Amino acid sequence: MNFEQLKPFYPKDMGTAKGWCLLNVAKGFHATPSANPSASAKADMNSNIARGTFHSKLNDIPTNCAVPVYVKSTSQYGHVVAYDKGVYYTDGRRYTPVTADIIGWGEWCNGFQIVKKGTTKSFLPAKGWWGRYDKDDRVAILARFMRLKFPAYTSAKALGPVYGDYLWKSIKEFQKRTGLAPDGNTGPITYAKLKEYGFVY
């Protein structure tokens, strides 16, 4: 599934006031706060459930965009943080929640649509595979996933929209470790294997 982020998220813009999680997230996404910015995360979560845009399982959190993630607190369902490329943010700082404390995520936050899903653009290009020096935003998504999931053999230099030598070497190592033919390219077989390890597009 592909996801499109409709509003930008900038961690540096997250507010620092505690107890105003929805307002902080709204500010981080450059969304104008609603008339009631201190509305509870539980109410926002229920709104997502009613829309059908709330996710109770986290295995489909998109790797290519930021989303609001709901976590338990002392009042249960009382806190929402932003998840962006493997990092959680709240009150202007990084946050590492315990997995059991995560409730789910939604495409809407505080009345504003953050993410749209269901676009039909395929991850693989028309030719059917990604290879050296191809350039595309989808390559950048793959590179971010590899860096996040396999940092031991994926250099930060692999990041970006170009399927350069560093990403090629990373994919080749992934193929070796998973029993695939190590050609360094990403075609249907390698793409299927990447999805087994959590890659989502």
Could you walk me through the main structural features you see in this protein, from its secondary elements to its overall organization?
With 201 residues, the chain is α+β, with helices and mostly antiparallel strands. The protein folds into two domains: 2-119, endopeptidase fold (from Nostoc punctiforme), CATH 3.90.1720; 137-196, Muramoyl-pentapeptide Carboxypeptidase, domain 1, CATH 1.10.101. Helix content is 27%, strand content 19%. The chain contains five helices and ten strands, in the order βααβββββββββααα. It has helices at 21-28, 41-51, 137-149, 165-177, 188-196; strands at residues 2-5, 54-55, 67-71, 79-84, 87-90, 93-95, 102-106, 108-109, 112-113, 115-119. The strands form three sheets. A six-stranded antiparallel beta sheet has the order 2-7-3-4-5-6. A hairpin with a 2-residue loop joins strand 4 and strand 5. The longest helix has 13 residues, at 137-149. The radius of gyration is 18 Å and the shape is elongated. The model has no long low-confidence stretch (mean pLDDT 86).
